[in-house]
Design brief:
Low-confidence stretches: 235-240, 293-300
Shape: flat
Mean pLDDT: 85
Radius of gyration: 26 Å
Order of helices and strands: HHHEHEEHEEEHEEHHEEEHH
Strand order of the largest sheet: 2-3-1-5-4-9-10-11
Strand content: 15-25%
Oligomer: single chain
Number of strands: 11
Largest sheet: 8 strands, mixed
C-alpha cells in the first residue's frame, strides 16, 4: 500500500482541522477555556501541517523536474541539472513521508513529563549494591550532559559505597520520552575487587523510570494514607538521628509504601514521599491501561517490567548488550560515563517507532 493510499484522507482531515482551529481562534468569540484548549491542539498540529506542506511542495518540484528531464526539447544542461535535483528529491520525499508517519503515531501523553528514577540492588549482595550505585551515577552524568536537573530524593547506602536503593527526580525536556525504556533488570558481569581468584561474578540491579505525576494527574485522598514518622537511621548529621524526621507513607488502597528520610525536615520528607507515591500510582494506572491493549505489547520495545532482563554490562569484554534489540557496544566506559548512553537510547526509540509504524500497515 502506498503512502497516499494509507494517509491521504487523514492528512486532508488534519489540514481541515488546522484551518478550522485557526479561524475559530481568530473570530474572538471563544471563552478562555475553549481558546486555551484549541490553542494547544493548534500547536500540536502545527509541525504536522508544516511537514505536509513541505511534502506537497517537494512533490510539485518533483513533477516539474521530471517533466523537464524528460523533455527532449529542453537544453541539455538544464536536463542534466533536473536529473541531479531529482536524485536529491528521491531521497528527500521518502524522508518527509516517514516524518509525517511518525507525527501521525499516537502520542504517549507522558513523554513530555519529568521522571522519577528508582534503582535497587538485586541479586549479588555487595557487588549488586555497588553496581546499583554506578547505574545511579551513570544516569546522573547523563542528565548533566543533557542539561537536565537531577535531584536525589532518597539513598539507602550499604556502607561500602553501594546503594540498596536510590531514588531521584529528573527534570527537563522530554525526560520520560528518552528514559522510559531504561526500566528493567540490568545485569553486570565482572570480577569484584574482593574476589581473590579472579572469578567473574554476575550481579543485577533493577531500574524503574516513572513519569512524574502532577496533582492534576493523580488525586490522593488523605483518608487513604497512613503516615508514620520515626527517627532516621541514615546519614545526615546529628539532628537527623535525634528527631522524628523520617516519614513512611502507606497508600492503604494499594499497599504501596514510600519511605523518605534524607531531609532533616519532616515536612520536606513528606513532600518528597508524596511525589514518589503519586508517580507510582500514575505508573500503575498507565500499566493497567497498557494491559487492556496487551495485544499491542508485542510491538513495543519493552514493557517496563522490572523483572525483564534488558541489558548486560560485561566489564572484562568492555561491552554493553541490550537484549531487546540485540545491540552490542564495545565502549562500556563511555556508557557508564553517560557519554554513549544516547547510542543505546536512540536505537531503542528508533526500534519502537519502526514497530509502531509496522503496526499501521
Amino acid at each position: 500500500m502506498s503512502f497516499d493510499d494509507q494517509f491521504s484522507d487523514r492528512l486532508r482531515r488534519v489540514a481541515t482541522r488546522f484551518d478550522e482551529l485557526r479561524d475559530a481562534m481568530a473570530g474572538g468569540t471563544l471563552d478562555a477555556e475553549t481558546f486555551t484548549r484549541m490553542s494547544k491542539e493548534y500547536a500540536e498540529l502545527g509541525p504536522l501541517v508544516e511537514a505536509i506542506q513541505t511534502l506537497t511542495q517537494a512533490r510539485a518540484e518533483w513533477r516539474d523536474l521530471d517533466a523537464m528531464a524528460a523533455d527532449p526539447t529542453s537544453d541539455a544542461e538544464m536536463r542534466a541539472l533536473a536529473t541531479d535535483e531529482l536524485a536529491v528529491l528521491a531521497r528527500r520525499v521518502p524522508a518527509l513521508e516517514r516524518q509525517i508517519q511518525l507525527l501521525l503515531l499516537p502520542k504517549d501523553e507522558a513523554d513530555e513529563k519529568n521522571a522519577i528514577l528508582e534503582v535497587r540492588a538485586g541479586t549479588g549482595g555487595d557487588e549488586a549494591a555497588l553496581f546499583a550505585a554506578e547505574l545511579f551515577d551513570m544516569y546522573q552524568r547523563y542528565a548533566a550532559l543533557r542539561g537536565w536537573r537531577f535531584e536525589a530524593l532518597d539513598i539507602s547506602e550499604t556502607g561500602i559505597g553501594g546503594y540498596k536503593e536510590a531514588t531521584a527526580s529528573i527534570t527537563g525536556r522530554s525526560v520520560f520520552a528518552r528514559l522510559k525504556f531504561e526500566s528493567g533488570a540490568h545485569r553486570v558481569q565482572r570480577v569484584p575487587q574482593t574476589e581473590a581468584s579472579g572469578r567473574i561474578h554476575t550481579s543485577a540491579a533493577t531500574v524503574a523510570v516513572l513519569p512524574e505525576a502532577e496533582e492534576v494527574d493523580i488525586h490522593i485522598d488523605d483518608k487513604d494514607l497512613r503516615i508514620d514518622v520515626y527517627r532516621s537511621s541514615g546519614p545526615g548529621g546529628q539532628s537527623v538521628n535525634t528527631t522524628d524526621s523520617a516519614v513512611r507513607i502507606t497508600h492503604l488502597p494499594t499497599g504501596l509504601v514510600v519511605i523518605q528520610q534524607d531531609e532533616k525536615s519532616q515536612h520536606k520528607n513528606k513532600a518528597k514521599a508524596l511525589r514518589v507515591l503519586r508517580s507510582r500510582l500514575y505508573d500503575q494506572e498507565r500499566a493497567a491501561k497498557d494491559a487492556v491493549r496487551a495485544a499491542d505489547r508485542k510491538n513495543q520495545v519493552g514493557s517496563g517490567d522490572r523483572s525483564e532482563r534488558i541489558r548486560t554490562y560485561n566489564f572484562p569484554q568492555g561491552r554493553v548488550t541490550d537484549h531487546r534489540i540485540n545491540l552490542t557496544l564495545y565502549k562500556i566506559d563511555k556508557v557508564m560515563l553517560g557519554e554513549a548512553l544516547d547510542d543505546i537510547i536512540d536505537a531503542l526509540i528508533a526500534e519502537d517507532e519502526a514497530a509502531r509504524l509496522a503496526a499501521l500497515q
